[in-house]
Design brief:
The complex is a heterodimer of chains A (455) and B (340). Chain A is an alpha/beta fold. Chain A is 27% helix and 22% strand. In chain A, strands 1, 2, 3, 4, 5, 16, 17 and 18 form an 8-stranded mixed sheet that branches. Chain A has an 8-stranded parallel sheet with strand order 6-7-8-9-10-13-14-15. A two-stranded parallel ribbon of chain A has the order 11-12. In chain A, α2 runs parallel beside α3 and α4 packs across α7. Chain A is globular, with a radius of gyration of 21 Å. Chain B is 35% helix and 15% strand. The chains are: A alpha/beta (455), B alpha/beta (340).
């Protein structure tokens, strides 16, 4: 990987349909970028020729969509500890290819991101990443759920939020303390909502399909009870609760009610929970579909889509979870939870939301930019003059087929292998630098994959 | 909602479901025996008629026939099993197959070898059929993706135990000549039972009415959606009349893990005793997949009584497994003796 400064600078993105939900702009325009890598102005197309941008690159976006760079509040980059699955740099590269110019990485690494040194380590590794990477710190020491981690120290080092993701903070008392403490610094507490005793050894959604397959189920109540508990604590402490990867109809209703009461709660949903249902596991028990929270029912998918449409759910986050192929190549019960998602998110969202007429383009882009930026107080997600020039150019009609070979993440555990998707990010710009270009290939380090799947 | 799951060809992977095209006369439509869900009535009846032919052979002085001569069958058992493993092994030998037994406890699995690698290594020794017993649901399905061998599921976790389901239904079919219209009650731990699931699917396909009864803690949470009658009260389940009662084995650890307050209570609520057995319709059957906990799920007088076909099930298991192996390896029904 190479430092971002080594990428070519961009001076102008011409004639695209510029959609910037933060400023309410939606129209054909030119986006000019200054020498410092910030948005200079957005104006009606002037027919500017490449020379107008001086030595900087000009991107012709005619017929394409120009949007703020996407922001993913929930990724697992596996560094430190499992660099064979992903690194900060390779995960960021996969991110910019998928349009995510900013990613926030979860702390369930080995060792966990639970102190100042590890936050700094991740940020140091991010120097060689094409996109922006913000660490999320652990709520509890080593994510053990026993005592508070050094929250203030980690904020000082650059952590933007706190989570024990992969597991909830099981102790309500400790979570209450964490929320009281985090509230002083106005940082969100991100909860993986699950009651461990209810989920038990569950590996998929508890429903008709699990009953047929004999697989142990994770009931919807497991998520909903924990979410209701966490919201009650958010109400009491005034802390901002961000509910990760909602998956059930009941959860959407709980968040909707909490928001109506003015409780500080935001929520995210993954692309896979917006399109896949548990019955796909019945096809052949493929561990590629094993994820936590599990794929639920069609009614849940419908409720999640509606929750996104009406603003109950704030944003889309991938929960990108790379796993070595051999770990997903076996028995469903024994495989780890999780799926990669950074590179397929846009195409899946187009299929699930745009083609299904659930959202229009401005609202989809808001869910990927303005809303996540607001949730984590990030200086990103807009094309206003003066904002960092983090931009994507999207060809919404370009078709591509998801294969292991065309995913650049180090891990290939995508549930969408073999799917033909619409929507390609043809260019991604970070800080005014062209970090990804679909025609020019990826100028960051190639993704090394030790094991290629047979599909 | 729109169902966006439109698969490309690349996504369609082999499973156990029967292909659309009709099989040649007298041949199975399924390529593997992974479960009874989705197996059509014609295939079930083909297995039954073939099993009947093999059962005749089992009564002869020389009980061996040559159809699988030259074929190698691996019995891959990742769980302790006595009855099923012996039954399969005997069925394979009766068909003149070469048999290799692989048990996980004394194998490379303990050294961390993956299921794929284990099977690949076994198949590299030019074996043709894998009979697999595994604690994880779907393990046999995984093998269909990982290998080109013919796969027989000998029980995968709580998912299915298709040959047990086949032998149970065959036992009824043989006794009654017809399963359609009969009411079969399955008693006990439905939640953890692969036997129950295979019985449910096979019996429904054959046109029987299926009822299940057991404590709510041992029922799958969405059991009402499986197209069967569901009871928690044994006497209410028996009230409409039953043609067969299939008692499932209740494992003692269900008590220690809080599914049941006590085995004594379970026995009182769900044990099949003479009074309950007497409610059977004429020609009714008492069944049990074994091994039995006498005095818990069934009393000795019932287990050894006139309605009991528990030992017939064992004999039929051999015939049904011979039939399944024979037909999956390309045999046609009825089985012809070739120089036997």
């Amino acid at each position: 990987m190479i430092a971002r400064e080594a990428y070519r600078s961009v001076g102008l993105i011409r004639s695209g349909r510029v959609i910037d939900p933060a400023s309410g702009f939606d129209g054909v325009a030119d986006v000019h970028i200054d020498e410092r890598g910030r948005v200079l102005r957005v104006e009606k197309p002037s027919g500017a020729r490449p020379a107008d941008a001086g030595p900087h690159a000009v991107i012709d976006a005619a017929g394409k969509i120009v949007a703020p760079g996407f922001i993913d509040l929930h990724v697992h980059l596996r560094e430190p500890g499992r660099e064979d699955e992903e690194t900060v740099a390779t995960g960021s590269a996969a991110g910019v290819k998928g349009g995510f110019t900013t990613v926030c990485c979860m702390p369930n690494t080995e060792p966990a991101i639970a102190d100042q040194e590890t936050v700094r380590f991740v940020l140091d590794r991010a120097q060689a990443a094409p996109g922006r990477v913000h660490p999320i710190g652990a709520i509890t020491r080593d994510r053990e759920g026993k005592s508070l981690a050094q929250i203030s120290d980690m904020i000082e080092a650059g952590a933007v939020a706190f989570s024990d993701d992969g597991a909830p903070v099981a102790s309500a008392g400790l979570l209450r303390r964490a929320m009281q403490y985090a509230q002083m610094f106005n940082v969100p507490i991100v909860e993986h909502c699950e009651v461990p005793e209810l989920s038990g050894q569950g590996v998929m959604h508890e429903g008709v399909i699990s009953s047929k397959l004999g697989l142990k189920g994770i009931p919807a109540a497991s998520e909903e009870i924990c979410l209701a508990r966490d919201i009650a604590l958010a109400r009491e402490t005034g802390c901002h609760l961000h509910a990760a990867h909602l998956s059930t109809k009941g959860s959407v209703e709980i968040v909707r009610r909490a928001k109506s009461e003015g409780i500080r709660v935001t929520a995210e949903v993954t692309p896979h929970h917006l399109i896949l249902t548990d019955d796909i596991i019945a096809r052949d028990f493929d561990p590629l579909f094993k994820v936590n929270p599990p794929l639920r029912t069609a009614a849940d998918v419908e409720a999640l889509r509606e929750g996104l449409r009406d603003g109950t759910i704030d944003c889309i986050a991938t929960d990108h979870a790379p796993h070595a192929w051999q770990e997903k190549d076996g028995e469903f019960d024994l495989a780890p939870f999780g799926m990669v998602g950074l590179e397929t998110a846009l195409g899946v969202c187009i299929r699930a939301l745009i083609e299904s007429r659930v959202l229009d383009w401005p609202l989809l882009i808001a869910c990927l930019t303005q809303r996540p930026a607001a949730a984590f107080h990030l200086d990103a997600g807009t094309i206003k003059p003066g904002a960092p020039a983090d931009l994507v150019v999207i060809d919404p009609d370009a078709k591509w087929t998801v294969t292991a070979d065309n995913l650049i993440s180090k891990s290939k555990n995508s549930p969408f292998l073999g799917w033909e998707l619409n929507g390609v990010v043809t260019a991604a710009v970070v800080d005014g630098r062209l970090v990804h270009h679909a025609n020019g290939g990826h100028s960051a380090a190639a993704s090394a994959s030790s094991a290629r799947p047979r599909r | 909602m729109d169902q966006s799951l439109t698969m490309t060809d690349a996504q369609k992977r082999p499973g156990g479901a029967p292909p659309e095209a009709a099989a040649p006369e007298g041949r199975l439509r399924i390529k593997h025996l992974l479960g009874l869900e989705g197996v059509c009535r014609e295939d079930l009846e083909l297995i039954f008629t073939t099993a009947r032919s093999f059962k005749d052979i089992l009564d002869r002085p020389i009980k061996k026939v040559p159809p699988l001569r030259g074929q190698t069958v691996v019995n891959l058992f990742y769980e302790p099993s006595t009855r099923t493993r012996i039954s399969f092994e005997l069925a394979e030998k009766r068909l003149s197959a070469d048999v290799v037994n692989f048990t996980a406890s004394a194998s490379s699995v303990t050294k961390g070898e993956s299921l794929r690698d284990t099977v690949k290594n076994i198949l590299a020794m030019k074996t043709d059929v894998v009979v697999i017993r595994h604690p994880c649901p779907g393990a046999p399905h995984f093998l269909t993706r990982a290998t080109d061998a013919i796969i027989l599921n000998a029980g995968d976790g709580a998912h299915e135990h298709p040959t047990q389901g086949l032998l149970d239904i065959y036992t009824m079919w043989e006794r009654w000549g017809e399963v359609k219209g009969k009411r079969v009650l399955i008693v006990g731990d439905i939640l953890h039972s692969r036997v129950a699931r295979s019985n449910i699917w096979g019996l429904l396909t054959m046109g029987a009415t299926v009822a299940v009864v057991g404590p709510a803690t041992l029922m799958p949470s969405f059991v009402n959606d499986l197209g069967i009658e569901v009871f928690t009260d044994m006497d209410k389940a028996l009230a409409p009349g039953c043609d067969a009662i299939n008692c499932l084995r209740i494992q003692r650890e269900r008590q220690s893990s809080d599914f049941l307050p006590s085995m004594r209570e379970y026995s009182r609520l769900y044990g099949v005793d003479a009074r309950r057995a007497a409610s059977l319709r004429p020609g009714g059957l008492i069944m049990h997949p074994g091994p039995m906990n006498r005095g818990v799920e069934i009393t000795s007088d019932v287990a050894d009584g006139s309605h009991s076909v528990i030992l017939d099930q064992v004999t039929n298991g051999l015939a049904v497994r011979m039939a399944a192996l024979y037909l999956l390896c390309g045999g046609t029904a009825p089985a012809r003796e070739e120089g036997a």
